[in-house]
Automatic annotation (TrEMBL):
It holds the Pfam family Metallophos. One of its GO terms (molecular function) is hydrolase activity. It comes from the Bacteria. InterPro entries: Calcineurin-like_PHP, Metallo-depent_PP-like. Residues 44-143 form the Calcineurin-like phosphoesterase domain. This is Calcineurin-like phosphoesterase domain-containing protein.
Amino acid sequence: MKLHVPVNQENFIFKTSDNVANEIVRFSEKVKKKTKSSTLVIPFITDLHLGLMPKNLKNLKKASYEHVENLVNVCRLIDHDLIIQNGDLNDGSSLELSDFWEGNEMYKRKMASIKKPVVNLRGNHDDNSLGDKYENNDLKKVATYSELKNFFFR
């Protein structure tokens, strides 16, 4: 039986539980073993749904924020070239625009600490323009493509 040994989190930007820290280190060591000097390393994250706040979903919001922090911690430990965020960063079902923009601001701030390029692709929940319908949400668009683009590149 393997004994649980807490990981030194000094290279982490965001502190986390010992279990998650151990998994981050284990994963980053696997990446390092498989990486050669000519390897292109691209961490990939998708479907964070950061603005999700209706009803009892506050735990999902907390979890999605922690996913961003875990990605930042992994990227501190591995040599990578860029990051791809493959869409649904937001959730068009947000009942409050403040939740939507709060999630975007947090993501932008935390990802900036990585200091590598981040490619953000748009998903069907990012502006709700692709026809998703939610109860109690009459917002046809939470944000337009132009608003999101201007937000990330201002």
